[in-house]
């Protein structure tokens, strides 16, 4: 029998271990099982290169409780250890002394001692009065037993053990009797060990999935596989919207699956739903340094051996790889959203209620994401199901909704039902109103007005409709009264079948020369008349009501009014009016034919 002192430069390492590790003392089980898995994986490697002979047999890890003996045992069938290896790996703790350690790590998380210093095994003393190791190497060597009662003194002797591998036997202390309860152990195992790559058994039940979906190639997985894995992670959640499979091996190693959950207005947004693993060992669910803040609403798993961790594996340290991984995840999410938007826009729009929160949050907090997201960020019409990207909104609304500073005014509603009258008044004038009603929209609007220099947001009930778009200090034009009257007379001579109202206003010179708008009520009545039979014939037979707003500040009128030929003046103004009517779908039949013929005739002149 060998006796001796564990070789550390301090009288007693164990009070220090207990002090530093006490607040998260269930982590000892992860460390011991991780060691058991490592021993098993080492044996597989040695066998594959011919250094370990014979059949490997059952390679599972077992956790067992003996309440009568007050022991908790972790058993593996891995490489095992010889007496020399126990002396080397157990008795020589890589520790420079308590005082130096305390000075070096003063102020850091008190849980951060395990792992980096080879102290994973010694975390067992947080819950034990005594720890035994019974181990037999895969090599031709006798089995040995090591035990220690929490002082620097240990015993090491030959022992009897039938099979290869290691048993760690913890004699649980009085303060830690909870770890002799099956439910407590099962909870810890499910938290830390549910995806370890070696089968883990407790009370005859396998508690882990050794080949989780993220460890497989995307080409091997079906939609059902991804959804089943999501259900394994979050058994009570609705199915996810979609997912992104991360699989990178250069310039860093990263695998994982990120899911976009369904989020409703009434849903309480929850963060910390992404789990971080290192080679399938659970590390933490606080991944704010790895995952961009706006994607903390996502769910799923990230696994990377390249993420630098402190000694407990549960605190991320600053490192270039973390930033690279962060940027990569941002890019992958943006690319996936753009891909769905381009390939199946209808599907993308149907999921916008949930997706919008991610996209808007990202646009506010990440300028790189903002650049990409401008292509697929959409806004829904306040009264219809139609959606617009920013560029589409500009195309549809810029004619009427530019203010005197040349900024596009995006009119929005925060409560379409309550603000219906205001929305109707705005749409009657031809304005385009969108819904911005989610919990992030107030902040989103403020941020986008700073980031989009040519855009201003105005709530639809912020003022009377005529004042919503501050187009000009006043509506006066650069024309004389006589010129305005002449223009008005020219524009009043327009196609039959329409009820025209003509007004001359001083709009921005960049605004179109003529704008045609239709009262919402009459347009809807005429639309309804098409399906309401005889009762709707009254509206069906009425002419369309149209307001032609002539922009007296547009430079083209200086040219038209300087033309001496009155007939040509009439043709030019008719064409401008027809273009405005055409944009509203109001130029049809013989009127459309006349417009085409007139346009050709003007081109010849």
From TrEMBL:
Keywords from the UniProt entry: ATP-binding, Chaperone, Nucleotide-binding
User: CDD domains, per this entry?
Assistant: HATPase_Hsp90-like (cd16927)
Q: Which Gene3D superfamilies match?
A: 3.30.230.80, 3.40.50.11260, Heat shock protein 90, C-terminal domain (1.20.120.790), Histidine kinase-like ATPase, C-terminal domain (3.30.565.10)
Keyword Repeat among record annotations: no
Q: Which family does it belong to?
A: Belongs to the heat shock protein 90 family.
**Identification of the protein by name:** Molecular chaperone HtpG
